Amino acid sequence: MDENSSARLKRRLLGIIYRIGLFLAMLTICLPGLWIVLSSLRPTVEIMAKPPVWIPQEISFDAYVAMFSGIGKGGIPVIEYFRNSLIISVTSTVIAVAIGMAGGYAFARYRFRGKSSVFLGLMLTRTVPGIALSLPLFFLYVRLGIIDTHFGLILAYVALNVPFTIWLIDGFFRQVPKDLAEAAQIDGCTRWQAFWQVEFPLAGPGIASAAIFAFLTCWNEFALASQLTRSVSAKTLPVGLLDYTAEFTIDWRGMCALAVVMIIPALTLTYIVQKHLVGGLTSGAVKG
Amino acid sequence: MKGFKPSAPFLLLLPAMIVLAAVVVVPLLLSLYSSFTPFRLTRPETFYVFIGIRNYLSILSNTDFWWAFGRTVLLLTIALNLEMLLGLGLAMLVEKATRGQRILRTLMMFPMMFSPILVGFQFKFMFNDNIGLVNNALQSLGITRDAIPWLIEGHLAFIAISIAEIWSSTAIFAILILAGLLAMPKEPIEAARVDGCTPWQTFRYVTWPFVMPFAYIAMTIRSLDVARAYDIVKIMTDGGPAGRTELLWTLVARTAYSDGRMGMANAMAYFSILLSIAFTVYFFNKLAAARTQIGAEW
User: What are the ABC transmembrane type-1 domain coordinates in residue numbering (chain B) (predicted)?
Assistant: First the structure.
């Protein structure tokens, strides 16, 4: 009897410790983000207050209004940055996915000599740190006259995304059974038709999440963008964020608001793709 | 069709090859060449002066460079190991949860959505010595009376940067290891328990070998962009105070763009590229080995 109750006590204690641990872990993960959101809604006086004001006295959207009301009031041209980010990210994503689909299909469906070294080689091009790559690109772009243009950044981002897109899409095509396409070919489809009518629709959701991942990489990229763009005509949002620090004092509230604007698309998109993303990355880890 | 088979994958891979050659390989060759010149942005004619390996020699005797190199390796070692451990812990916590697992999983991925530049900014804000959340909390709780100069003192700044880095990348490990835990068949664990294994033994000899490939995938993905830390450092301290948090990447950027010494910067950049490549090749091989170990097709 005594053993029983002490075992029960121990189990309950472990349960409580587990709950506390989980809660603390989640708190650590979420708190920094929530703090940014909260700070973007508070007046600057409260952010600067000493001793700190923990419970916000008033909530306002002033920072957002100021940010989107043009250069004069918000301090930085957020709308232009937003537009640049969107154009560059979308265009380079579309191109990278088209190239990645061809490459991924080749890896998933064909056997050829040196397959795994080609794959490794592709991945290695991705490892070159953005800042190291920016040096020669900067020099070349100046020579070619495409520095500070959308085109230049799009080109760089396509190359940045292709290796990882191939990895992901390769995984998704592997999940589609080979037999299906073969059956379609026996029924008289060409390989091209079999691809578009059988394999592509099945791998579709996966490819979409690879696209979203590529989009996010472009959306968030900083090291290359900060060196290859200089003016409002091509600067992206991450580079724009630095505008706030370049000034003599830091406008914490404005920066927080811009951070929230940047994070919302990323948040939404990641939420949509999370399931497929993990599936694509790990395919082949358990079964071929 | 059969005769053309070898050329099909080649044709399919051709666009990828062309883009990568144009944007990565050719520029890198150019930068390799310029690392043998005293090239300065302000004096274009220096691009054609060949000075052999003098840049590399002067790097070898440059203490700032070696400090930055050592600091980069230290940061990566600390960060990757802690991320792996914390990710494993987090994954196991979430896997144990009986209710609300979907929400927990989404919350767990939260930091992944933050771009490194945002992570840097967010932690710069939180670690601000005057108005930051960390100091405010410490002071309100009475743990310290004076403000701790997080980003102003060298060692503390390094710790703050490590925390930011770990916060942002633990999610990748957690999510992939969790995928491994969920994909794992339950029978071996039960069999181990019936055979009288302790929980630790079960974990060490049953769970871990199965989850390992997933951990290596996470490692490989991480090693593809270890240089993300550049963004974080750039915005948090910009290598300061007095170069105490200077990493290879910030040093390269400073040498190239602030000092305008492109040739020298390219020589330094090659060290950082080699570092990245070494990481990737190492984990890629580990990944391949782990995959064959559990009989997967590659």
Answer: 69-283
